[in-house]
């Protein structure tokens, strides 16, 4: 999708401290329309996270440059307005959302629950024909039941797959 949205001749610069991410990008770049260059660098951008990791002793950072060499047009998925769900009852001990497989695959990776705050978080993986998203879904106690929505501060692109994940959390909450 990045190649579809980036101007011809454009490039993308990513800096990370996580070497496994660099390895993953190197494996995934083939057939994307990008040329890849990467190098190990010292801290030099002064971002909040770079300062944080440097203060903790991190010395190695990695610069990844993706240069668009050819146009590969992919259809841009239409955004959908995500529907937030509400359920009257929720039992975190019995919560087990169903998995979906097919054109849209949804898998739940972990579930965390804070009984004091009345908030559950479910980490989800969504695959829509090769477009992947990882995000958290929040299940929060309210005055009149429980609200199910994408977790605040968690980036999610509103697609049919993201809505399917919300629907499956609702279904799992209703069965719990």
What is the tally of helical segments? 4
Q: Which ranges are low-confidence, i.e. pLDDT below 50, for 5 or more consecutive residues?
A: none
Task: State the helicity in percent bands.
Answer: 10-25%
Please give the number of β-strands. Answer: 8
Mean pLDDT: 91
Task: List the domain count as a whole number.
Answer: 2
Question: Which structural class do the helices and strands define?
Answer: alpha+beta
Strand arrangement across the biggest beta sheet: 4-8-7-6-5
Instruction: Categorize the overall geometry.
Output: globular
Give the CA-CA distance, first to last residue: 37 Å
Proportion of beta-strand residues: 35-45%
Give the SSE order as H and E letters: HEHEHEEEEEEH
Specify the biggest β-sheet.
5 strands, antiparallel
Radius of gyration: 20 Å
Task: Please give a structural write-up.
- This protein has 176 residues and is α+β, with helices and mostly antiparallel strands.
- The chain folds into 2 domains: 2-68, no CATH class; 85-175, no CATH class.
- Helices cover 22% and strands 36% of the residues.
- It contains 4 helices and 8 strands.
- The strands form 2 sheets. A 5-stranded antiparallel beta sheet has the order 4-8-7-6-5, covered by helices on one side.
- Strand 7 (131-142) and strand 8 (145-150) form a beta hairpin.
- The model has no long low-confidence stretch (mean pLDDT 91).
């Amino acid at each position: 999708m990045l190649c579809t949205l980036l101007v011809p001749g454009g490039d993308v610069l990513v800096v990370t401290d996580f070497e496994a991410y660099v390895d993953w990008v190197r494996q995934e770049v083939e057939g994307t329309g990008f040329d890849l260059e990467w190098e190990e660098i010292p801290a030099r951008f002064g971002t909040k996270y770079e300062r944080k990791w440097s203060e903790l002793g991190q010395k190695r950072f990695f610069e990844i440059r993706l240069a668009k060499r050819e146009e590969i047009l992919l259809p841009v998925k239409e955004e959908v307005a995500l529907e937030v769900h509400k359920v009257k009852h929720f039992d975190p001990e019995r919560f087990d959302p169903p998995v979906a497989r097919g054109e849209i695959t949804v898998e739940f990776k972990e579930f965390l629950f804070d009984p004091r705050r009345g908030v559950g978080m479910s980490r989800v993986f969504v695959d829509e024909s090769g477009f992947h998203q990882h995000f958290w879904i929040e299940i929060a106690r309210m005055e009149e039941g429980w609200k199910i929505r994408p977790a605040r501060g968690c980036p999610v692109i509103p697609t049919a797959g993201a809505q399917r994940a919300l629907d499956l959390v609702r279904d799992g909450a209703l069965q719990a």
